[in-house]
Amino acid sequence: MTQLLNKVINALEQIILEVIDTNTGTVKWVEGDGEWAIDLFPNAGNQQAFAINEETPFLQDFLFDATLIWQAAENGKLRSGLWTETTHTNKELYLEAIAIKQDQHNLLVITNQREDFEFQQKTKQLAREVLLSYDRLFLKNEYLHTRLLSILKQPPEQSNILTTLTKVIENAEFAVLIASSDFSTNIENSAAIKLFDQGTLISSQPSRPIDIILRLMQNQLPEYERILSTNSSWDGELCWISPPSTLKWLKVAFYPVKNKLNEVENWIIFANDISTIKHLIQRNEQLALQDMLTELPNRFSFLQMLEKHIAAKQPFYLLYIDINDFRRHNEFYGHDQGDKLLIELSKRISAVVKTSDFIARVGGDEFAIMLNNIDNQKACKIAIQRIIDSINKPFHTKKSESFNISISIGAANYPHDGQSVEELMKFVDLSAYNGKKNRKNSVQFYSQSMKDASHHLIIVEQNLRQAIKNNEFELYLQPIIDIKTNRINKAEALIRWNHPEKGLINPDDFIPIAEKSGLIIAIGEWVISRTCQMAKQICDLGFDIKISMNLSPSQVTDNNLFAYLSTCINDNKINPRLLELEVTEGVLVDDYSAAEKLLSNVRTIGMSVSVDDFGTGYSSLSYLKKLPLDFLKIDRSFIKEIVADDNDKAIVRAVISMAHNLNLCVTAEGVETKEQLSFLVDNSCNSVQGYIFSRPIKLDYFIKLLHEQK
Amino acid sequence: MIQKKICLLGASSVGKTSLVKQFVEGIFSEKYLTTIGVKIDKKTIFLENEEIQLMLWDMEGNDTYNVFQERYLRGAAGYIIVVDQTRATSLHEGLDIHTLVRQVTDCPAILAINKSDLPATWNMDDSENKSYQNLFDLQFSTSAKTGSNVEEMFSALAKLLLRS
Fold it and tell me: Do A65 and B34 touch (CB under 8 A)?
């Protein structure tokens, strides 16, 4: 029996040492032998006691931890982890030790782990080479993308731009293509020509690189149509097979360059050959199906699984989860924190889905989940709620700053909504995209009406673009009355859209779309320009009236806004004192540093600043003290019930008192009755605005009012 | 003879093994072979009439596949955080490891900014440089490939250990 045991131990390449004295590290060799073991302990004879000393320093160090096991009352064991020992004959041994306490016996088992070591080294070597390659690829892409965008966004009159641009593109180590909006013309660098070289054997005209990429995207991406129709950016992997000899894996990044009207003027496309990385990954099956960052299954693995489930004809729900404003988060906290967020998010979602469900990372900040064994929307909603609850808890950066994120979830049902992988992926992608209207968590189930609504948005956006070109907007003015003098001293400029067919359209119906599509910048510039003209016209008639204009969140973060404002003021030769900017408190909190910079600049030149809709948003009061402000406008929702509701009364009194203590004046919005007015007068409100005096009116009527008041 | 344990720590593929190889054997290999577990090398140097044996604990880099293990630091007289100047992320990872080590020992620490023979992809301004200097006892810009500052770094650490 002992002989058989010894054979097994030798086959396992182990030796067993019995510990005689834990304090001196003295052991006795009891079982196992082999050349490697003799190399390790050349001075230890069979069955002889010997001390583990500085000749094997790793093992000697391990004895500290091992002693705790041996001296414990209970049975137990502890592994040392792998180490490499160089023997006196200069051989390298790959070893692991296990300290064991078993029924009063203190044992030290040493295993020659050559095979396990080599396997680990091979796997980790591949994994780390892939990590490194991705790291480098990412850095190169980010660098060039940032540089190209900054160059393309510079005014064309800036000298040397073409030379710089050409140099940057030509010297890139990977394919760079800049295409016109319809992809008909494009420039490409030498790396692109090399990457898409189709050999000289092909008799027909070789395809242009851009056409190859578009064709691959069209065939391999269910999102293709959505990307083009919504002018979105995309990055991911494509496989290019061109018989007889081409098989390349490409990592492609696809970015639109838009003008002020949110029209695509160019597309920038980067393509890297990642065939080697793919090859490395494919040598290891696990890596080929796994996302390296989150350790979840990857897109490829997910699509495979989706195919399998569809083939099995079992109903399920497909969810597509997209992190809102992930790019902004990355820019703000850095890419390593972005990675940390993705890992944490994947853990949280994995913890709340069932083991029978399947979750994968299918894109940069996109996750997909198959909720199996669910065939009704109610059950699906419960599962989604668990996911939302899990991400609603704050996340933390490495510096322990806490922050919250929101996600957009698109959901579709198999077989009801779609019956193929392409259809389902396309539908959930569209659903998640549609849910991204605000920064809140959203869930959007696929439906025909959603598809129609998405189409409607595209039409409104096109109409808005026409409206800017055809000058279909008009500014109305709503008087603001100074309570002390009971006279108009200010007016708020409010935009209206004179639609050629639909008539007058209120801003609530088109500003959110303009904001989302980026058209708000162009519309905002029109508002600034027209406000300046109106202020000038009123001033020239001898009236000292300030005009305030609303700024949207995108305008506050637009670097060119202040320069544009200054130009309009100079062109119209008006005193900046006659202009005011209105921003909502949400903008102040979300984009604090951008808002602070802009507001300081405008106040330096003499304009004033007011906070709109005060009390409805974040109500973070710290910004009131820090930011350069002049007025608070109490939201109409507090004024509406002010006569009857004691809470509203208390809130309005408190806001007025707080504002006055901070040297800010207060304007009440939405004043409609005498009772409301008298409450505001009694409580020292500075000015009021509302239907009790006038609704928003056209400029000529406003001027008439001013004349009447004279 | 005095014996001192020195640990080399950092993200994977920053060049810890190459630094040890350059210091102990005076050679450099372009081929990257990832370290698994721990490997201990010894080198004896003479300093101020003293013979010092440096026990260099070259540890597997910390990443997704291998988490930091504080037990290997037991008895360390000093440690070197190695970062790769062509990868900014390795600096952040190195600083994270440094924070973890500081929770178990306050022995002398060196920051080795390795691969100085290659162009750096991050630029430290003076204030950053200063703030890192404050975190470490010494800082070296090294190249395991050319040998630049490798000997100097280990000698400086040994000197520091002799005095402490």
Answer: no
